[in-house]
Amino acid sequence: MTAMTATVSAPELSGEVPEGQSVTGDLPADPRLKSMATVLADTTAKIKEGRSAGARVWPTGFDALDTSLGGGLRSGELVLLGGPQGLGKTTMALQMLRRAVSSGTRSAVFFSFEHDAHAVLERLIGIEAGERDGQDALSLNTIRQVFESRHTRASSLEEQFASTRGGPEAVRGIARYADRLHIHASSGMHTGIEQIRAAVEAIRVESGQAPFVLVDYLQKVPVPGSGLAEEERITHVVEQLKDIALTYEVPVLAIAAADKGSLVGGKRMRVHDLRGSSALAYEADVVLILNDKYDVVARHHLVYHLDNAERFRQWAVLTIEKNRGGVDKVELEFQKRFEQGRFEREGRVVQEQLIEERIFVD
Length: 362
Known about the structure:
It is built from 14 helices and twelve strands.
């Protein structure tokens, strides 16, 4: 049998490729593959058109956090927000989402595995009212009572809230961006990565721009038919969410649940306490962790100043544990307004000493 030898055509030797033919013969060109010349040309075109040549930035609305992150969340970033149960992860994320759509023309989509659309509306009314009236704004309990009222003869949502302080203004505030904020009633059985990607693409086609993405929460995103262990499944999900961020050039903000073993009072939660922590720490561009200030402040701040205990309970500490594009290990604090379903936006750097674990002092 005669040995076969490969032949090389002239175009391959010269480096030239006939028009309409890829460098790999019959295989299509990879749309993700670009030469640096193409990158330079694309960047120059943006500059000529008066557009930003760098990453697009989405402010979170939390002033101290935006300052630490260099303006906010960036296009192509996967951002994780973790913390103990009941400490306001969804509340803070929803405030960030509201900021993304309330200033300008940007859109957003909330993949909600935990709350239905009406519960999100109640929270948004509380946030909007708080933006206008501060501590005196409507409480979530009042908002729920208004919705549960019957025979009010109201013909609109504004009229339903007419007897409340700031209620009609809050409803009008939501109406200004309502067509750009999308709520996806997500299911731990049916809303996998492909459904998330399809919804993002549908919004991009309809509006002409890809939306800011919030997933609440990522451990509930299923991987159908995989049979993977939890760690492997979470790894797959975070890799795919990162790919969505890069493909659509938007931030993807995902809330991360904690391991049950880490839900202990008086212990500071870190990224390694999140479910699937190794994958989360590696894939994420930014990791934010919430802790109750009372749980993580050093003991001497309580022993010698007993009145501090109640004051510290009113604040949450937000730590930038990882920031691939800037500074990390930054500890900020924000005051809770949970009766109104929000945090105060004006935070500050924590001044007290924080620790990993302490014995309770009541």
